[in-house]
Amino acid sequence: MRFLGLPIVLAIIFSLAGVAPAVDGKKDKKSGGKIERSMAADPNVTITLCVMSGEISVRGWDKGEVRAQSADAEQIEFRRIDKAKDISRPANRIDVMVLDRTDPGGTKGDCQALANVELDIPKGATVQVQTRDGNISIVGVAAVYAGSQNGDIEIGHAQRLVEAGSVGGSISLKDSSGRINLSSAGGGVEATNIRATSAEDSFEVGTVSGDIQLDGVSNGKVVAKTVNGNVTMTGPLTHSGRYAFTTMSGDVTLALPPDASFQLNAKVSQSQEIVSDFALTFTMDGATPPATPKAGAHSEPGPKPSPPGVQPAPAPKVSPPKPAAKSGTVVSPIIVQRSVVVVPYAMRRITAVCGSGDATIYVASFGGTLHLQKK
Amino acid sequence: MRQCLDEGMLQSYFDGELSTEVMERATSHLASCAVCAAAVSELEQESLLLSTALAAEFATSVPTERLRQRLDSAVAGLQVENAGAPRAGVAALLGSFFELFNFALGRTLGYASLIVMLTFGVIFAWMKFRTSVPLTPKDNNVAVTYPVKPPATGGNDFPVKTIPNEGGKEATPKYVVRNAKPNSSRPVAPKSPAVKLIPGERSYLQTIAKLDSTIKSGNKAMRPTLQVEYEKNLAVVDRAIAATRSAVKSNPNDPDAADFMFQAYQSKVDLLNSIADARVYNRSQ
Questions:
Q1: Chain B residues 5-24 with CB within 8 Å of chain A
Q2: Are B8 and B77 contained in the same domain?
Q3: pLDDT digits (tens, 9 = 90+) for A119-157
């Protein structure tokens, strides 16, 4: 029996060696029907991935390697596209090529796969992903370039740069910093808790018919443009920040803290309203000056030059404020109602100051209403 | 002379054309030669026969060479005098005119061919004149014009309208009937109304046209989902452009209105850029 035990043990060892998968960073391995591939990468590696359809999920991690997983793909290849002389060094640019079951040989080329792909890449990496119909989710990566035609894009915890664009899908950006550029034709754009890493970091967002919702955007320069959508911005204004909002037919709503200090430069239609919870000191108005509100308000009339080509309109009506309460001054909203227009169409420029005029807000609305709300 | 005289010699002897010495030798030979004497006798009989038959002719007086020269010079002098002299009176004209109606065979054929050529020429000219004349409308002061080509943007403003026919039922003609000047002899394709562009607008239109051609190029049709987004958002920006453009026209001195219009154009350019990128991306698949 002693002599039989040794061969049995050896047989068991050899069988386990044949069954156990090879743990090699560069070889494919399949676990639970999911194909996986990994490769050593530089901490600031640039990863590119393109699929025709499928969900793309990218996560940043602390490891110095890139891992790709897919349950639908037939094969995943890592193509090193950096021109490093020393191949033994970790790759600086990697192209992740996904081959699905319809094209296992990869004859169709890149961006042809129909597969869901999960990527784990270093946190300091730059990722460039593109898909036609799938959704994109990217979390915890330094720089992001994302593009989709019909899919939604969700980005979170980006640290340096975000550029995302979609034709019909929506874009959501959270808890990120750096230079931001978001665009969507038909979808809406939401940005929450965005901050700048340097004074040059700008935040630009544009849509055609989608709404723009900004909450806690603290970049020094914020530009939001839309044609038919509404623009809503909530949160404090950045010290000496510059904000520009442009709409054609949508409303602009700025929900600002009560202690907000800003200078307002607005170009609005004569037929549209400007509703403000803040006490505005008008320095220039294309229409006739508003009436001085009663006690409790701080707005004062100033010189009112008429811009050329605009006929003066009668004084707008201002609802009288409520009496001040005993505990503090209560200022009712000042509503600058529409004027009686004499010309078929006319624009008017309004320049007003609230507080010390720290931040600068430019609003251009061709047919929408401007709301300045206290929040 | 021992040899017999040949025929030429005999004829010359008979005509007296031989010299004296030859004549004497010929005579002595004829006296001794019976053959030559018989030949001379035969020649003498032939000559007598000819002179008898042509006696009348010989009797006619024939002018001499000198007389002939005198007559020729006289005739030549008469011809020179006639050429230098002017036509004389109406009779000469009429005479030359009526000579044209002298229907000789050659002249008749010439007249006939001339008439045929003139006839063909008239027929050809008439046919050509007939084709260049416009269709005469029934109503006065109305000219028929050709249909206007619809604009490249695909707007539905093809200017075709129905007009009632004589039976009172509405008909849909191929052409647009418009009032025109009565003296217009040729149908002229109507030109699209000139659109006065606002300064700075042209560059946007050119860019938009290029992007539009990029989007529409290629054999592959646009994907339905992309097509829906494209058309939906394109309608939005086009409405914005139209509204702002109208405002600019109403307020040409207002720079803010122009600024809005250019922003609307820029929105369209951005939209077309994204759609064009999507088209290029889809075509590569």
A1: none
A2: yes
A3: 999 999 999 999 998 899 999 999 999 999 999 999 999
